[in-house]
Amino acid sequence: PTAMREVFLETPKVRWSDIGGQHDIKKRLQQAVERPLKYPQRMKRLNVKSKKGVLLYGPPGCSKTLMVKALATEAGLNFLAVKGAEILSMYVGESERSLREIFRKARAARPSIVFFDEIDAIAARRSSSSGGVNLLTTLLNEMDGIEELRNVLVIAATNKPDVLDPALMRPGRLDNILYIGPPDFEARREILRIWANMSVVNPEVDLDKLASLTEGHSGAEIVSICETAGDAALDDEEETQQEQDVQWKHFEYALAQVRRQITDT
Ligand code: ATP
């Protein structure tokens, strides 16, 4: 009996509009997918091959996963997600089999995206052998299976690009390398606004000020601040037995609770 976990096709429902900021990244991802589908003739004329792979790197909680899900939703692509650590944890030989199976499914479901989160778990430098050599080789072989990968986009994400085996980033593999950094002021304001639009935030709350105060926080932390503020408002509701909106004092409380993990060490 095999312990191989099934990898299912997912249908993410994330839209571009759910992601604050990062407009440049959104556009580049869109192009990587849309060009080959919309303008194959133009690409052929200029001798430009379609991109097979994208590597997203940057600090945790800054929308890498969100981006890939939005791309799949907005472009109408099937989506397979795999966590590096999950594959690595399988029995010897099973990881490789599972990896090949994932690509088989992706080809059967094209146009599709295969998303490898924590790619560093399966594609670390060959020298730093963790028994993952065969896995890396399998991954490279699958990616090199050229024609067959048409309309399958491989996207990988990592917080540790420096440990990746350089072979992975060679032309024709994950050669479209994009950095997704912490949200800038504009992005933070958008993240706050997106959350506020789905909640009931008191009009006295100055989102610009909040955007300034959250400098250095990841997107995930900003959402966490909002939810902590929301929780504080719920506490008030319970205490007063009256409906509350989320007020400045709640955000102040939340700001003190949520630590910056990107810039603090
Ligand atoms: P990790 O490296 O830890 O996997 P990640 O970069 O893939 O992190 P996501 O999973 O995309 O991060 O983001 C985590 C959560 O943070 C999201 O589900 C979302 O709630 C929030 N978030 C992060 N960035 C943004 C953003 N720009 N706009 C809206 N929400 C965001």
TrEMBL record:
Stretch forming the signal peptide: none
Domain AAA+ ATPase: 50-184
Protein name, per record: AAA+ ATPase domain-containing protein
Natural source organism: Penicillium coprophilum
